[in-house]
Specification:
The protein has 186 residues and is an alpha+beta fold. The protein is 31% helix and 21% strand. The protein is built from 6 helices and 7 strands; from the N terminus they run αααβββααβββαβ.
């Protein structure tokens, strides 16, 4: 009788724990944790200090999901590679209109930042984050914070898309004929 009672309690505990995971994308997601948010906030401050958010770069025509016009800046923070993509969109967006008023058309800033070895060895140890122009971390439609190993294991999203980049580093090579040259900030 004691064994049946203990088994019933253990079964109830397992059911409670597993149903919590099954019902919540936030609990299962490999991104959006308190640590991811803290790292993303610190990264934004360091990007600001380094000028990665304010240095103009070469504008070029882009497409989804990053925007009809974009620019890419690369630098290092804490000795690690950081790639910043400014994404422009909205009514009337064009290379010329963005050149005249970048702030009016800036919709998001997406960042790939190298982390320590072993952070996410399956994906070249990149940390992913999507910011609003003011530095606030964005959320997806399910209200999940877009910072960390964004959409890891999903057939769509940051990691899935960048996995198709040549070179096994998840970084798309910049084709000067199709895109603008990347701007490096020292």
């Amino acid at each position: 009788m004691k064994i049946k009672f203990i088994s019933a309690i253990l079964f109830a505990m397992v059911l409670t724990v597993t149903s919590g995971f099954a019902g919540s994308d936030k609990m299962m997601a490999p991104f959006g944790s308190a640590d991811d948010i803290a790292y993303a906030k610190d990264l934004w401050k360091k990007m600001e200090a380094k000028g990665l958010n304010s240095t103009p770069a070469n504008l070029y025509v882009g497409g989804p999901p990053h925007g009809k016009v974009r620019e890419v800046i690369e630098g290092t923070i804490d000795g690690k590679r950081v790639i910043v993509k400014r994404n422009y969109g909205g009514k009337g967006v064009s290379l010329a209109s963005v050149m005249k008023n970048r702030g009016m058309y800036l919709k998001a800033i997406t960042v790939m930042a190298k982390r320590e070895k072993g952070y996410d060895s399956d994906n070249a140890d990149w940390f992913w984050v999507k910011y609003k122009p003011n530095g606030e971390i964005m959320m997806n439609p399910k209200k999940m914070v877009l910072a960390g190993k964004v959409a890891k294991g999903s057939p769509a999203g940051c990691i899935a898309c960048h996995a198709s980049a040549s070179g096994n580093d998840l970084v798309f090579a910049h084709n000067k004929d199709a895109n603008a040259e990347i701007v490096y900030v020292k």
